[in-house]
Amino acid sequence: MAKTCAFKAEIRQMLDLVIHSLYSKKEIFLRELISNASDAIDRAKYLALTDATIAPEGPTWEIHLLADAQAHTLTIEDNGLGMNATEMEEALGTIAKSGSKAFAEALKKGEEPNIPELIGKFGVGFYAAFMVADGVTVESLRRGKDQQPARWSSTGDGEYTMDVGTRTQPGTSITLHLRADQEQFTDEWVLRDLVHRYSDFIAYPILLKEIGEKNNHEETNTVNDDKPLNTMIALWKRPKAEVKPEEYEAFYQQTLHGSGEPLLTLHIAAEGALEYRALLFIPKTVGMEMLMPGNRHGLSLYVRNVFIGNEIEALTPAWLRFLKGVVDSSDLPLNVSREILQDDVIIRKIRTDLTRRVLKALAEMAKDKPEDFETFSIALGDFLKEGYHSDWENKEKILDLLRFRNLKDGKLLSLRAYKEAMPQEQKAIYMLSADTLQAAQQSPCLEQLKAHGFDVLFLTTPVDQFIAGEFSEYDKTPIVFADKGDLGLTKEAEKKQLEASEKEYKPLTEAIAKQLEKTIKDVRLTTRLTDSPCCLVQDPAALSPAMRRMMEAVGQPVPEDRQILEINPDHPLIKSLAADSEESHKKDVIDLIYGQACLAEGTLPPDPAHFNQVVNRLLK
Ligand code: ADP
Ligand code: MG
Q1: Please, which residues have CB less than 5 A from ligand 2, an ion?
Q2: Looking at the CA of 38, which ligand is closest?
Q3: Mean pLDDT of the chain
Q4: pLDDT over 90 for what percent of the chain?
Q5: How many angstroms does the Cα of residue 169 sit away from the middle of ligand 1?
Q6: Ligand 2 center to residue 144 CA distance, Å?
Q7: Angstrom distance (rounded) from CA 234 to CA 237
Q8: Long-range contacts of 252-260, Cβ-Cβ distance < 8 Å, separation of 24 or more
Q9: What is the separation of C-alpha 156 from the centre of its chain, rounded to a whole number of angstroms?
C-alpha cells in the first residue's frame, strides 16, 4: 500500500547551507538585517493605522547601527513592530518561515488597500548574520497591548535559546558577536559604504553609532548620530509631476555620480501587464567606462528599494550602455539569495520596453530639441550606430536617428533630411567612407557628384565603417557609395563618347593593366572624374578602404579584394600618357598616377620607396 511521507530535513545541515553556500558575499548580511528592520517598521506603521495601541507615542521611525569595536559587536536596532516570544520562535526558530510574507498574504486575502511593499519573503535572510557572527542575540518587545520582552540567542549550530528579554522600548535589536576575521564590520567607513551600496533607498533613516572606538580612552564615543547614512529618496518611486528638475539633477550627480546636467531625463512608471519603474539619464558626454562593450554599469537594478546588482546584462542591450540610472520592479523573481534572477522573462520584457522608450524619447528630442540631439549625436551617436548594427528588432527606428556629416555644409544630417533636400533629378542617396572628414571632402570620387550639385553623406568614424556595408536603401531610395560601381549619372551621349574613347585608349588601358596586374583588378575609363586624372574604386561587394585599414590595424585577416583603377580620358595627363612613346617614362607616369590615386583615398602606395624614386626621376 502506498503511503505519503514528509521529507525529513537535517536542520543543522540546512542551516549550514544557508550560512555557507547561499550568498557569494558575506557583506550582504547587513542588507538582509536592514531590510528586515525596514519591513518591521512598515508593518508597525501599517497596523498603527487601525490599532491605536501599536504606536501611541508617535515614534520617529528609525534604524540604528551600533558598532562596538572593543566588544567586537554590531547591533542593528529598529523601533518597528517587534516580536513576542511566540512570534520569535516562529520566525527565527523555523528556517524558511517568513513572517513578512505571511503578513502580506494575510492582508491580501482581505483585499486591504495600501498594503506596504515588504522586502522579505523567503524567510532565510536573517540567518545571513551567521556568516559573520558566531553568536547572535535578538532582543525584542512587540508593539501593542500587554506584551512581554523576549530574547532569542543562538550560535548558529542548530540550537537556539529563548529567554525573558530586557528590552523596555518597543522594537528589535539584533546583536552580532563578530567572528574574529570579520571585525571590519565595526568600522564606520565599511558600514557607510555597505549602506550606500545596498540600502541607500530604504525609506527610514539609518543612523550610525560607534561605541568604544579603538584607540579611544573614553567610555563611549558616539559619532554621526544625527545624519542618516542613507539618502532615502527613491526618486523613481515618486509621481513624476511631483519631482522638481533640480531634484533629478541632484540625484544624477550625487547618487549616480554623473557630471553636470544630464542631457535627457526619462522617468518611467510602467503599469499594466508589466510593472516597473525606472529613472534613466542620458549624459552629455561619453565616460571612459562606457567605451567598453562589456560594461553594463550604467543601470542598477533594485527590487523594492533594495539594491540587487548593476551587472545585469539582460537589462539593456549592450549599445545602451551610455544610460545611467535605476530600474526597480517588485515583480522580479529573485532567487533566495537575491543575487541572480532566476527567470528572465520579466527582465527581457523590461529590456524591450526600456529600449522602446529610450528610442521614442530620442526621436522626440530629434524633433523638438534639435540642438540637444546634435549634442547627443556628436557625443554618443556611435552607440546608436552600434545599435543599428546589432539590434535587429529596432533597426529601422535606429536608422532614422542616425546622423552623418554632409558634403555641402559639413552638418549632421539624417537620411530623411538628406532625401527631402534631394533635387528631383537625383535618384540615389550618395555616401562615402573615409578616415576623416577632410579626406572624404577631397576624394576625387566626388567630382562628378559635385559637378551635378548633389550632396553626399560621409561615414568617417570606425563604427561608421562597421555599418557601411549594411546600407543599401532608405525608404525605397537606393544608397550608392561614391567610390563603388556606377553612380548612374552618365548620360547616353556621354556613354557613347566613352565607348568611342575606349577603343582609342585600349593600348593605354592594356599597358596599365599589365603593369599593375599584381595590385589592381581592372582598368577602365570613367565619367566619375572631372579634375583628377584617375581614382581607385571598389567592387560593390568589397570592403571600404577605411574598413580594410581598421581590420588590418587590429590584426584581423583582410580578404583580398583588389580595386579598380578608373582613368579620366578628358584629363590632359591621361591624354599625354596615351601619346607617350618613351616606354620607361610612360611606366613611371603610370606608377605615379596610381600612387596618387592611393594617396587620395588615404592609403600608402604599395611600395612607398619605389614611389619616391619614380617621383624623383620624373622631377629631374
Ligand atoms: P524574510 O525577511 O524573507 O521574511 P528573514 O529570515 O529575513 O526572512 O526573517 C524572518 C522573519 O523574522 C521575518 O519575516 C520577520 O517576521 C521576522 N523578523 C526578522 N527581523 C525582524 C525585525 N527586525 N523585527 C521584527 N521581525 C523580524
Ligand atoms: Mg529578510
Answers
A1: 36, 120, 125
A2: 1
A3: 88
A4: 59
A5: 18
A6: 22
A7: 6
A8: 252/281, 252/324, 255/200, 255/231, 256/281, 256/324, 256/325, 258/283, 258/324, 259/283, 259/285, 260/284, 260/285
A9: 41
DSSP β-bridge partners for residue 208: 65
Pairwise pLDDT comparison (65 vs 306), residue with the higher score: 65
Residue 484, all three cell numbers: 563603388
9-43 pLDDT, tens digit each: 677 777 787 787 788 889 999 999 999 999 999 99
- Residues 111-169: tens digit of each pLDDT: 666 677 777 777 788 999 999 999 999 999 999 999 999 999 999 888 899 999 999 99
Q: What is the CA radius of gyration of the chain?
A: 36
* Closest atom of ligand 1 to CA, residue 174: 23
CA distances from 250 to 243, 269, 390 (A): 11, 20, 34
Which residues share a beta bridge with 268?
278
**Which atom of ligand 1 lies nearest, measured to the CA of 97?**
10
| pLDDT band, residue 311 (cuts 50/70/90) | low
Q: What is the chain's length?
A: 620
Biggest CA–CA distance in the chain, Å, is 119
Q: To which H or E segment does residue 75 belong?
A: strand 73-78
Give the number of the atom of ligand 1 that is nearest the alpha carbon of residue 118. Answer: 2
Nearest residue to 326 (alpha-carbon basis) of 285, 354, 352: 354
Half-sphere exposure of 620 (CA within 13 A, CB side): 7
- What's the rounded Cα separation, in Å, for the pair 22 and 125? 10
> Would you say 341 and 267 are in contact if contact means Cβ atoms under 8 Å apart?
no
Location of C-alpha cell 585608349: 505
Which ligand sits closest to the CA of 336? 1
User: Cα-flanking dihedrals φ and ψ of residue 185, to 5°?
Assistant: -80, 10
C-alpha cell at 204: 527610514
d(CA 262, CA 235): 16
Say which residues have a Cβ less than 8 Å from residue 174's Cβ, sequence separation at least 6: 33, 75, 76, 77, 129, 136, 137, 138
Ligand 2 centroid distance, CA of 251 (Å): 27
Determine contact, residues 194/202, Cβ cutoff 8 Å: no
The single-letter code of the amino acid at 560 is: E
pTM: 0.79
Query: Rounded to an integer, what distance in angstroms lies between the CA atom of residue 64 and that of residue 54?
Result: 20
Residue 276 backbone zone (phi > 0: left; psi -120 to 50: alpha; other: beta): beta
CA 125–ligand 2 middle distance (angstroms): 4
The secondary structure of 227-296 as a DSSP string is: S-SS----GGGS-GGG--HHHHHHIIIIIS---S--SEEEEEEE-SSS-EEEEEEE-SS--GGGG-TT--
Give the separation between CA 421 and CA 407, rounded to whole angstroms: 13
Among all bound ligands, the one having the nearest atom to the CA of 143 is 1
Helix 583-600 × helix 608-619 angle, to 10°: 130
| Of 610, 448, 613, nearest in space to 516 by CA | 610
| Nearest in space to 212 (alpha carbons), one of 183, 186, 181, 237 | 186
Q: Which helix (H) or strand (E) holds 146?
A: none
